[in-house]
Amino acid sequence: MLRRSRPFDEGDRYVLDSFLNQFWPATVDGLSLGAIYSLVALGYTMVYGVLRLINFAHSEVFMIGTFAALLTVELTGITSPLGTVPLIAFVLLLALVAGLVSGGTAVALEFVAYRPLRRRGASRLAALISAIGASLFLQQLFALVVIPWMFDRPKEGGRLPVQSADFVEPVNLFSIGPIDIRSDKLIIFVGAILMMVALDMFVNRTKLGRGIRATAQDPETAVLMGVNIDRIVTATFMLGGAMAGVAAALYLMRFEETEYFVGFLLGIKAFTAAVLGGIGNLRGALAGGMVLGLIEMYGSAAFGSEWRDVIAFSVLVLVLMFRPTGILGESLQQARA
Amino acid sequence: MERLGTLRRNMMRVTGAVALSAVLALGASACGGDDGGAGGGDSVTIGFMGDLTGENSGIVIPPSKGAQMAIDEYNATNPKVKIVLKTYDSQGKGEQAVPLAKNAITKDKIVGLIGPAFSGESQQVAPVLEEGKIPSVSPSATNVKLGDNNWKYWHRIVADDDVQGSGIGEFIGATLKAKKVFVINDNSEYGKPLAEKLAQTVKNAGARVETESIDPEASDYAATVNKAKAFDPDAIFFGGYYAEGGKLIKQLREAGVDARFLSADGSLDPGLIKGAGGTNAEGSLVGCACLIDPTGTAGPKSKTFSDAYKKKFNADTAIYSAEGYDAATAFIEAIKAGNTTAEKINEFLKTVDVPGVSKQIKFGPNGEPTATDVYIYQAKGQALPLLGSSKTAKVEG
Fold first, then answer.
1. CB contact set of B159 (below 8 Å; sequence gap of 6+)
2. What is the C-alpha to C-alpha distance for residues A46 and A59, in angstroms, rounded to an integer?
3. Does residue A323 fall inside a structural domain?
4. A163·B277 Cβ contact <8 A
5. Which residues on adjacent β-strands are paired with residue B114?
6. What 3-state class would DSSP assign to B263?
7. Three-state DSSP state, A72
8. From the list B23, B55, B212, which residue is nearest A305 (CB)?
9. What digits encode the pLDDT tens for the residues A168-213?
10. Which of A261, A276, B177, B185 is the most buried (most CB within 10 A)?
């Protein structure tokens, strides 16, 4: 705020000055952005942990979740913004619907695009191409058929964004010093953390979770020990997809808008977060997402938004140079040699 | 995948807004006015080229109708030499436009071309027309660089992005009297130079300026919004398209930044208001070198034109319909004066000086229009009605 007292021109921008001014708002935004990255990253990391497959169609699982949430908003007929408490309840409903739809989509995707290949012992590269194909197919299907049909638009309208009814009016809940805590950002952050704790407990404490961990460690031995691999794979896709669905509901609450390629950039970022945190590692996805969100926001604050991705990916490369397995290392619970 | 997004924006970039509403209204009657080849002895053929059926056809159909209307009116006067208008659907793509242009020259023997509608295809088609010595007048290509090619046969009726940038910039300084202006661009070939030109103009008028950019592929503009909030500006200008503009308004208002929002032709679409949500965009201002004036705010001439257009096509005038009419008028004047070969028409275009609907039809030596009017539109409810010329418009609310 000091710099406002003197005349300002283009050359007057000091990186450090700008960065310090923006530090706290950037932190809040970085964490709320990072929370969505983390949730989506879980899907990449779980599937990778179990199948050693990068499910590139996961971004479309997220995209379909945003549309499920949007349709839910439309069907409930809400037209004016909700208060904070009803909003939390409503977001829970959206998360439930979007989680189920996204989870179902992920399972269907596994059945159609991956399982037949797995059965025939195709190479991982074939599955990767199948993933990319499924991703493109779903995007274009939405742009050309689903969106025009669902929202009664001419065919050119399928590529334009779709807005939901206005159901959120963010309010400043409280301020800690210079930090304004806004309701929507807080809901995203808390919601994402709760989901991740729940998932972590599920994988660590339940029988199905044990099966997932066993398969991730050594699929062949797991089969010999009586684990039904197909069931485990289905559960993995369901859980990962559901997390993307929850992320989609939170995303819709934050932006009240979606479009057919909404998952593309976000998917790449989430995949990056998974690698940054250590792919195959659930807690790594959380760490990677938060770190990536913060770096992006700090980088934009210091150097301007056009440098956002440059800085984020430079940090990724640096981290991987010194820790090739990511911040927390590989593995779903147990390190392999 | 990213490519698709970029491609979509590249196609839009030149001309700005894709009027979804126009697509809805006009989509069904997309192919008006293709009369086939040249008719009887005393007629010449003029082409119209642009995206007539593709995803950006919403901004090309109105100028094609405007051109059709001018030529129909002329033919109705029973002139010595009639004009046949032939349409070429380039889908806005250079690789389709080039062979179409070659065909138009060799097979259809056009003596002039209205279009191409977009800057990208113009860049590729102009050399072909240069070689074939065929004059062209584009109603809607606004990229600044097009004018730097020393083309002898190329003209446009709409002013370029620099004119827009300085026009809106002067408006911010003189009419809004803003002392602190936050200028945002979308990092595109269209938005960045436009925002830079505007920032320079506003700075020269004595305002303090801070600049930022957004990534159009991302949906979270938090860093930009935080900077705007810290700067606490009187006015915010965004150089970019309405899809991002709407999201930007929404996020700015949610963060409590309520400075006046301004943008340019890329955001001249009701989608801006819809994307902003609720009443967030109310009162926002959008500048454009184009004149869209269904109610005749700008004067009796545009009223007469709009009424006749509505009667003929059962639709309101939309983006670039007046420019399409004026581009056709330039050719009509040439033919009226007895010039029926491409070479002679091109000579005549150097000297043409008649009043059009959108502006005085007159070209500089580089093919640029000499008129530099910029019009200001203001968001009101779900529409963006004309407020007036940037030099005289009074802001409401």
1. B142, B289, B368, B369, B371, B372, B373, B374
2. 14
3. no
4. yes
5. B48, B137
6. strand
7. helix
8. B212
9. 988 888 888 778 889 999 999 999 999 999 999 999 999 999 999 9
10. A276
Q: Could you tell me if residue A214 is inside a domain? A: yes
Chain A residues with beta carbon closer than 8 angstroms to that of B4: 139, 261
Domain that holds residue A84: 24-168+179-264
Residue A137 falls inside a structural domain: yes
Please answer whether residues A172 and A182 qualify as being in contact, where contact means their C-beta atoms are separated by less than 8 angstroms.
Answer: yes
Residue A31's nearest CA partner among A188, A255, A262 is A188
Interface of B with A (CB under 8 A): 1-2, 4-5, 8, 18, 20, 23-24, 27, 54-55, 57-58, 187, 203, 208-215, 217-224, 226-227, 229-230, 243, 247, 250, 254, 271, 274-275, 277-278
Topology of domain B2-159+299-361 in CATH is Rossmann fold (3.40.50)
Q: What is the rounded CA–CA span in Å between residue B303 and residue B310?
A: 10
Q: How many domains does chain A have?
A: 1
Flag whether pLDDT at B37 surpasses 60. no
CATH 2.40.128.30 for domain B162-288+375-389: no
Query: Which amino acid belongs to residue B11?
Result: M
ipTM rounded to 2 decimals: 0.85
Geometric angle at alpha carbon B350, from B345 and B355, rounded to 5°: 95
Q: What is the distance between the alpha carbons of residues B219 and A83, in angstroms, rounded to a whole number?
A: 24
Q: How far is residue B305's CA from residue B357's CA, in Å, rounded to a whole number?
A: 7
Strands A172-176 and A179-182: antiparallel
Q: Select the residue of A170, A262, A297 nearest B254 (Cβ to Cβ).
A: A170
User: Half-sphere exposure of residue A311, counting CA atoms within 13 Å on the CB side?
Assistant: 18
Same fold, B2-159+299-361 and B162-288+375-389: yes
Smallest CA-to-CA distance from A266 within A56, A45, A47 is with: A56
CA distance A236 to chain B (A): 26
How many CB pairs lie under 8 A apart between chains A and B? Answer: 108
Q: What residues contact B174, with CB distance under 8 A and at least 6 apart? A: B205
Q: What whole-number distance in Å separates Cα of residue B240 and Cα of residue B261?
A: 13
Q: pLDDT at position A14, please?
A: 56
Mean pLDDT of the region A47-70: 95
Give the bridge partners for B208, in sequence order: B180
Q: What is the per-residue pLDDT for B89?
A: 95
Whether residues B226 and A163 touch (CB distance < 8 A) is answered with no
Q: Pick from B2, B4, B189, B209 the residue to mutate for testing the A interface (most A CBs within 10 Å).
A: B4
Task: Give domain limits for chain B.
Answer: 2-159+299-361, 162-288+375-389
User: Residue B257 pLDDT > 80, yes or no?
Assistant: yes
Kindly state whether residue A311 falls inside one of the protein's structural domains: no
Q: Is A152 on the interface with B (CB under 8 A)?
A: no
Query: Nearest CB to B226: which of A25, A157, A261?
Result: A25
Q: What is the pLDDT of residues A273-294, one digit of tens each?
A: 999 999 889 999 999 999 999 9
Mean pLDDT, rounded, for B322-330: 96
Choose among B8, B211, B219: nearest Cβ to A159: B8
Tokens representing B356 are: 């059009």
Would you call A313 exposed, middle or buried from its count of C-beta atoms within 10 A (0-12, 13-18, 19+)?
A: middle
Residue A38 to residue A269: CA distance in whole angstroms: 10
